[in-house]
Amino acid sequence: MTVPLSLGFLRGLGALALLGLGAATVSAQDTLEGRLGELMARAQVPGLQLTVIADGRVARSLALGVRSVDTGAPVTAVTVFEAASLSKPLFAYVVLQLVDQGLLDLDRPLSEYFDYPDLSHDERVDAVTARMIMGHTSGLPNWRGQDERLEFVRAPGQTFGYSGEGFVYLQRSVEHVTGESIEMLARRLVFEPLGMDHSSYRWTQTPDADVALGHNQNGTVRSKRDVGEEANAAWSLHTTAEDYSRFLLAVLRGDRLSDSLRAALMVPLANVVADEDDGPGDVMWGLGWGLEDGEPHGWGMWHWGHNGGYRAFVVGFPADGTGVVLFSNSDNGMLLLADALALTVPGEHPAVQWLDYESWDDPGRLVRLELEEVIRVEGIEAGIERFRLLRADQPEAFDEATLNGLGYALLRSGLVADAIIVFQMNVAMYPTSSNPYDSLGEAYFEAGDYARALANYRSSVRLNPANANGRRMIERIEREQRAGG
Predict the structure, then answer these.
(1) Measured between alpha carbons, how far is 44 from 39 in angstroms, rounded to an integer?
(2) How far are the Cα atoms of 12, 62, 110, 357 from residue 241, in angstroms, in the given order?
């Protein structure tokens, strides 16, 4: 007899004990706190901060759950979270103030301000401007591989391509022009004027730090990294939801900006979907912010954050002064995003569709949880049998991503041999798709079987020549083989 999917899901509610949420909280359907607490339990998100903006002010501020499942210390209003890529809009706000001061020109090539060593080998650097970087049309990749040379992946100024490397280039240029570090600039132009007392790009661990520790998908605590001298405009901001709300409100009002730049914030610079050449879409990119157009709010400014162990999201609507800031300390944080927005800023959110994160109740996720538990408790053979039964009963819950996600969950848990079997099954089911081979290659590499890893990476790249990770791993394995490694 097939075990219902809901049973596998309900087992996951054991996370309630870890979250410190009692049954009274979960059943309190008439309160925002109660409904968010229930979502956190179902998504297995240990800690959360959320602020709701209404009528141009902070209407609600919530701190829920725990900073760490190991300590059980509660999240408070001043608990610091990693903002991840929510770092970028704040740095863009710094840059725009420098433009108003005449220190930078948005459309002057950055190479005229600073000779960036990482791009000195390519003359196309002379076309890159601050406006391109903030609108993600610089032509640079998101991140290069370790020890890789920075290369353009498309022509500057042509199409959207999200790039953290671009923001690092802009950061180095700004620091060169001003003679100040990103931390000094942010403190002078944003943190102190806006009263953001718990924010820094250079967070460093202290014994009494009130910081939310990141958690993996399976709920284990991740080690917290210091930033210090590695402050990075693209990802290293540490802050609270209340602090970030002060920044969001300032941007929605256009504080500290000239009238021209205040208006420019809402001007789309690029479609985020490559084939939208016939006019603006409902998800665009502007000066450091994503832009979305949905009823009933109209055009809004948004961004998301995705660091290891942390997920974050912000959206604000200048026309009606509404918005929300959400920080979580879990890789599962985006599982509750759509529901959290429905509770706080209801309406259409095209950005969420574009991001395409799973929701906590997606059938594919519930299937993976069920299969993962069976494999852990009963072994891989029992897991394969359960897979066959569930697939027969719930075919709509299965696609290429189902087994791929299961394989990675097993790989992260150290069940490498089981992960290899799952990835092999996925390759057999989707033999013309590149990604299953790439994943199987990673599992073989993890197992130390470099010959099979190389064969699968080559198969992946043959099917998708644009697979940068596959090409990078092929080069790495071949290089180590030549060196006798």
Answers:
(1) 8
(2) 27, 9, 33, 21
Torsion sign over Cα 466, 470, 471, 472 = positive
Residues of the chain with pLDDT under 50: 1-29, 276
What's the token pair of residue 456? 């699968």
**CA gap 224, 203 in Å, rounded:** 11
Name every residue whose Cβ is closer than 8 Å to that of residue 203 and which is 6 or more positions away in sequence: 80, 211, 226, 227, 236, 238
Report the mean per-residue pLDDT for the chain.
91
Q: Which residues contact 277 (CB under 8 A, 6 or more apart)?
A: 271
- pLDDT of amino acid 208: 83
Distance CA 369, CA 376 (A): 11
For residue 12, what are its two tokens?
């996951």
Cis peptide before 46 (omega within 30 of 0): no
pLDDT of residue 230: 87
At 93 the pLDDT is 98
Q: In whole angstroms, what is the distance from residue 344 CA to residue 332 CA?
A: 19
Which residue is it, tokens 């959320």? Answer: 50
pLDDT of residue 277: 52
Q: CA dist 218 to 43, 46, 240, 373, 480, Å?
A: 10, 11, 24, 11, 33
φ/ψ (deg, to 5) at 447: -80, -5
Residues 304-331: pLDDT tens digits? 999 999 999 999 999 999 999 999 999 9
What pTM was computed for the model?
0.87
